Structure formats: C-alpha cells, structure tokens
Amino acid sequence: MAMIPDQDKAFLKDKFGEEMQAPVTILAFTRKPEDQDEAGLECEFCSETQQIVEELAGLSDKISVETREFSTDDPSAKDMGVDKLPALVVQGPKAGAVKYFGIPGGFEFSSLVEDIVDASRGETDLSDEAKEKIRGIDQDTHIQVFVTPTCPYCPSAVRIAHQMAIENPDHIRADAIEASEFPHLVSKYDLSAVPTVVINEKVQFEGALPDSEFADQVIEALAA
Amino acid sequence: MTSEVPGGQIVDVVIIGAGPAGLSAAVNAKARNLSAVVLDIRDPVSRLKAYPEVTNYLGFAKQTGADLARHFTQHFSKTGYPLIRERAQKIMPIGDYLCVGTDREIYDGKAVILAFGAARTQSLQGEEELVGKGVSYCVTCDGALFSGKDVVVVGYISEGEEEANALAGFARSVTYVATYEKVETLDPGVKLVHAKPISITGSTKVTGLKTDLGEIDADGVFLIREAMLVGGMIEGLELDEHFVRVDKSMATSIPGLFAAGDCTGAPFQIAKAVGEGQVAALSAARYVYKQRKKES
After folding, report:
1. Measured between CB atoms, which of B145, B219, B220 is closest to A194?
2. What is the pTM of this model?
3. Which stretches within chain A are classed as H helix?
C-alpha cells in the first residue's frame, strides 16, 4: 500500500519540479526486520520510513535515496551522528546536517518535503534577523527537536532548527526525533511535552517560537 | 471562496469562536468579501441557547436564547464559511501572517479574530509554572510521552472524555476529574471522579492534582477547557487582568490580531459582542487589504 496518497503525489511532483534546484540525496539508515533480533536493536518503523522516502524519490529525478544497512561500527553512521533507527539524512550540495530519527509521518511529513526543497536550494526563508544571528554562531551546536507525528506545532520547530543547520552547516546540526519511538530519550531528558528543544544535551525550551527568538535561545544555550 | 479550505492555503481571516461575536465577525467579513474559516469545538452559540429569555437585544423584545441562537446560526450559514470543530490552542506570527494551531491542524490567516468568550475558568494554582513539566493541554501532541505513567485529565467540558479515553491506551492509569455533572462516554478503564480542581502540585515536575476531595498522585495533568487561557495562547499579547486589551478598532497588541466579545471584558452582553464582532471584522478587512497592497 502506498504511504503517500495519489493526490498528494501529484501536488508534490509539481512542487519539486518548480522549487528544486540542485539534486538532493536522502541517506536512509535502516535495518531489515530479520536482522533485528540478533542485533538487539528494534526498528519499529524502518520499513515504513524506507517506503516513504522511496515514494518521494519517485516524484522527482532530483531526489535519490541511498539505503544503508545500519551497524553500530559503520564509520559513515558515526560521522553523521546516526545512533538510532530509522534515520534519514537530507543532503543537498552543502554538507548534510539535517536529520530525522523515527518515521517522518503525520505532520512531520510536510517538514521533510520542505527540508528537501531547502537543501536543494541551499537557502531558507528564515527572517533576515534570524539568519544574521545564526550565521554568527561559531561553536559546535547540536539541536534536537523532539516531536510526535500528531503534534501540529511541531513542524514549525523542526523547520526552524533544520533551516538553521542549512544556514550554518559548519557549526550546526539539527535532528528531528519522533519521541514516542525512543522512550529511552524521553526518560533521559525527562520530556513531557512536544515540541521540546534540546541544545547541546540540555533541555532549552518547550513549545514553538518564531525563528528570531529560537535563534536567541540557541545563542543563550551556547553562552551558558 | 467556497467552504473548502485546501491544506496549506492562507485565508484572509481565521475567526476563533462561534458565539455572537464570532458569527457577527463572520457575517461582516463576508460582506467585505474576505475568505475565512471559523473554529469552535462546541456547537455555535451554545451558551446563548441555554438562556431561557433574552429581553434586551434590539428588535427582539422577548426571545428565548434558543430562538435567537437559531437566527444567528442561520444568518452565519449564508456566509458559506466552514465551521471547523477544533479548539484553537496556539497562535504564532510567522512573517506577514498568523498561524493558528488547533489540536489537529494548522490554519494560516492574514488576520485572526479572537472571539472565544470570557475564559470561564482562571488558571489553577501551579498550572502556569508546570506547563511543559507535566501540565499539558493537548493529548494528541503530548499523550505518547506519558506511556506507562499515571495521568489525570481535568474535564471542564464533555470533550475531555474522549481525550481521557485516548490516554487510556498507553498510560498506566487515567483518572478523569469532571467539573460538570453528566459524564456519558468515558471508557470503563478510566477512573471517574467528580471534584473541583484546586491546584497542581510539584515543584520541578508535576506530582499530582489537589481537589476539594483530596489529592490524586499523577505524573501528568491534562486540562481540557472550553477555551484556552488566553495568556498561554500567544506570546506577547497584552492583557487587562484576564481580558484581551483592545483599542477602538478592536486591534490587540499583535499586528493582524483582533478580538471581540466577552474575551475583551465586560459588559458580557450579546449586543456588545455582536457590535464588537462587526468592528473587528471591518478592521481585519482593512488590515488584509493593506497586506494585499504590500504584496502586489
């Protein structure tokens, strides 16, 4: 069964055709169901995630999918900060710093679509004010946005975090994490609301903020 | 504009609340040829329907609330605007428009009119401090984070029952604290308590809910009210006490955001709400026209 409904496919085909520039590669780190017991790693939504990105790739010749069978000693996974499954890394002409952990379903699907376009263009529609703040960051910054697929405010936080990573790929990496698939992280960060934004391992704020205030939060977290 | 609102499209005005102020705003927005949606989780003019008698609305010397309500909804239905049965939770300015999030969807409007009535309930003691630390207003969003935990749902309206039922799927225990009489659709797995909530306990994390009948231990407290407390809905909105501060054009402190009716304060009268709804719609129309000019 298709994950993306036909009427959405037609819309997306046009959208990608009109808005994409450079090609985008989606690296999909997954694990086959039969390998899961042995490795002790569960991946509830690996096959659905894989299917979503393959269907997306079918809508534009500028989108390609590279599937990697995940293993903990894979250096490419380590380099990219992939430590849980399923993981998607969206790579445009600039280095890939935009990631999803867990299925990009529900409201998060729209984030993925917009991320693909941004990565392809290498530019974002963040406000000039936010861009200026973000480009000034010169420390390693890891932004984790915890979401659920049923949360309507979450995509806005994911989008801003990912756009920040696209604007400053040398210093910022940004992950969208589907909270209900990673209960150990829910307890690690003691999460009780989405979206929650964790910056360099510290819970920074909860809720959706306009981009310039989000940027202030990042700067504040780095100064702390 | 027909009654269909395709996803992702920006309408001219999102009207929050289908009481006398909201419906009046809708009728007047239509007269200015704006596109609009109206959001309300309850039936339109539900509170008015309960009044046995209305004697001070011009043109109707003596009417039952139900009759007046029927006239209002019939008039509104001529606009063709969709009435969407969802509860607005958050409003965020994004660029030149405002984004309204419900517990299910996002609606983008060039302007937004707040017309959700007076907040009938004030925040509970401890509530504001513990938002995001176990206090939540959105089961669809945050429910999954409480899997295996004990939660309380405080239902100020019957819609809370459905939310409690949804939580019962993954929480260890769900207690439903109903502040109203008739609870009809609660699952047997949810414990029902009729009580008056007093405060939410906990310093850095929610530990429970105190009621007039004693304390209930919980890791999370979900509050399901008729309308969100306005202070939590939008950052930077100026208030007078618990009411939205407006100027004569019904503009709030946020550009593009207007308010009308009981949410702007007393007198809590139908005629006042209807009048303010009209002013808010006309001001919103002026604002939208200006935005359009800027774009072209």
Report:
1. B145
2. 0.77
3. 6-19, 33-39, 46-57, 75-79, 108-121, 128-135, 154-167, 183-188, 211-223
Delineate the domains of chain B, giving CATH numbers in brackets.
10-120+228-295 (3.50.50.60), 128-224 (3.50.50.60)
Taking an 8 Å cut-off on Cβ atoms, the answer to whether B142 and A206 are in contact is no
Interface of B with A in 210-269 (CB under 8 A): 219-220, 235
pLDDT tens for residues B187-218?
999 999 999 999 999 999 999 999 999 999 99
- Residue B29 tokens, joined: 């927005």
In chain A, which among 204-223 make CB contacts under 8 A with chain B?
A: 206-210, 213
**Lookup result for tokens 């799927």:** B169
For residue B124, give Cα distances in angstroms to A64, A184, B175, B200, B262.
52, 31, 18, 7, 21
Whether ipTM exceeds 0.95: no
Structure tokens, B275: 């009048």
Please give the Cα distance from B91 to B103 (Å, whole number): 12
The predicted-structure confidence for A181-216, as pLDDT tens digits, reads as follows 999 999 999 999 999 999 999 999 988 888 998 999
In b/e form, how buried is each residue of A94-113, taking b as 16+ CB within 10 angstroms?
bebbbbbbbbbbbbbbbbbb
> What is the sign, positive or negative, of the torsion defined by CA atoms of A6, A8, A14, A16?
negative
Q: What structural domains and CATH numbers belong to chain A?
A: 6-223 (3.40.30.80)
pLDDT score recorded for residue B1: 31
Which residues, 6+ apart, have CB-to-CB distance to A121 below 8 Å?
A19, A20, A21, A22, A92
